[in-house]
Amino acid sequence: MGGKVYHYKDSSNLDIDFVIQLRDGRWGAAEAKMVTYEFDKAADSLLRLKSKMMKVGIRDPSFLMILNITRGIAVRRDDGIIEVPIDCLGP
């Protein structure tokens, strides 16, 4: 798909594990978390990044994701962020 993967950290200590950007400008971000009690903190970070990007004129992300090690199915949270078990990404 011709995209690139970056890590994001800024002066406000906002730290995002993965920012994926395609050549056409589409982008998405993901936080990797091992335990469910960290999901809300991850979601807050992802939403903060989205807000910062929109303030400087970058369009909405194609996705915001919390990648986790739990088993099960991917779900979309009420805030629009998807929670995806790592085993959903491949065989």
Q: Any descriptors?
A:
alpha/beta, 91 residues
Q: Could you outline the blueprint of secondary structure elements for this entry?
A:
Layout: E1 4-9, E2 15-21, E3 27-33, H1 39-55, E4 63-68, E5 75-76, E6 82-85
Parallel strand pairs: 3-4, 4-6
Antiparallel strand pairs: 1-2, 2-3, 5-6
Describe this structure in words.
This protein has one domain (4-88). It has one helix at residues 39-55; strands at 4-9, 15-21, 27-33, 63-68, 75-76, 82-85. It has 91 residues and is of the alpha/beta class. The protein has a 6-stranded mixed β-sheet, covered by helices on one side. The chain contains 1 helix and 6 strands, in the order E-E-E-H-E-E-E. It is 19% helix and 35% strand.
Q: Could you give a short description of this structure?
A:
By secondary structure, the protein is α/β, with parallel strands linked by helices. The protein has one helix and six strands.
Residue runs with pLDDT of under 50 for 5 or more positions: none
Q: Supply the helix-strand structural class.
A: alpha/beta
The total of helices stands at 1
Globally, the shape reads: globular
When the domains are counted, the total is 1
Secondary-structure element pattern, one letter each? EEEHEEE
Euclidean distance between termini CA atoms: 20 Å
Return Rg in Å: 13 Å
Q: What kind of sheet is the major sheet?
A: 6 strands, mixed
Helix content: 10-25%
Q: Tell me the fraction of residues in β-strands, as a range.
A: 35-45%
